[in-house]
Design brief:
Mean pLDDT: 81
Structural class: mainly beta
Number of domains: 2
CATH class of the largest domain: Mainly Beta
Shape: elongated
CATH topology of the largest domain: Immunoglobulin-like
Radius of gyration: 25 Å
Low-confidence stretches: 1-18, 183-191
Distance between the termini: 31 Å
Helix content: under 10%
Order of helices and strands: EEEEHHEEEEE
Largest sheet: 4 strands, antiparallel
Number of helices: 2
Number of strands: 9
Length: about 190
């Protein structure tokens, strides 16, 4: 029996900070490095920036940055908080649509897909969320590797309410399983 469904990539664009690389300077503007803003803890005034040279995140106090960089970080604090307060889970869904039998083979057809569950762990609503996804699956893989086929989609959510799940269903991936009866050989013996 062969049934293949694989999720290669599920890309989601949710409220996120500026992903552009920029120069971060100290207060005196004597030292700088290139990076992108990936986190901000407003209660502790800590900034997390991914350095372009090492691709590693570094965390430091907001007060160490120049005035221009501090304004940049504070302007994106809501977006960074929202991006850090979401959880996404992915569940495979397969529903049998029909089945056919002959003397030697059995073929079953399925509708495959995924359920994307998004949960807001913040204490406030997140509004105007856009979720883009790409599911890549193998097509005609019963005789070899088959070909990769993408299924793209998008969903606009008006709001993510705190402590409630929002579900997005992605279906329409045709799956087929084949079972072909082979020869059965047996040998006699005692145990």
């Amino acid at each position: 029996m062969k049934r293949t469904l694989s999720l290669l990539a599920l890309l989601t664009t949710i409220a996120s900070a500026d992903v552009e690389w920029r120069a971060f300077e100290n207060v005196e503007k004597t030292k700088s490095f290139t990076g992108r803003l990936v986190g901000y803890d407003s209660t502790k005034a800590l900034v997390t920036v991914q350095k372009k040279s090492t691709m590693r995140p570094v965390t430091f106090k907001l007060a160490l940055l120049s005035e221009e960089n501090r304004k940049f970080v504070e302007a994106r604090s809501m977006e960074l908080e929202a991006a850090g307060g979401l959880r996404m889970m992915f569940y495979e869904t397969v529903t049998k649509t029909d089945s056919k039998r002959t003397a030697t083979t059995r073929t079953s057809n399925y509708n495959g897909g995924f359920r994307i569950e998004i949960r807001n762990y913040l204490r406030r609503m997140i509004e105007d969320v856009e979720v883009d996804y790409i599911v890549i699956y193998r097509k005609d893989s019963t005789s070899g590797n088959g070909s990769l086929t993408p299924l793209k989609g998008s969903r606009n959510l008006t709001a993510l309410v705190p402590s409630l799940n929002e579900n997005i269903l992605v279906d329409g991936i045709p799956l087929k399983s084949y079972y072909k009866a082979g020869t059965v050989s047996a040998s006699g013996g005692s145990t």
